[in-house]
Amino acid sequence: MIKYTVPFLTKLEDMIAESDYTLRYEKGNFKSGYCLLRDQKIIIINKFYTTEGKINALLDILKTVELETTRFTEKSQKLYEEITQTEVKA
Question: What pTM, to 2 d.p., does this model score?
């Protein structure tokens, strides 16, 4: 279940930190609210987004990018599987 709270955002951030991608919050005028540099494995999200906007951007990214899950904790693995198998409900 997706919860638009700061602790849920922290779980998503921790999961990305355990992968081979780097997450950064920067200012920018990204049309989608985020920028994804696949070759460099960097995810950049607009830092002025609300918590809900940041969560939605991360969920969009997680559905389009294949993360390296070998270093995931059990909780992160479970969350990643839930996210990649369900549709985003706003």
Answer: 0.83
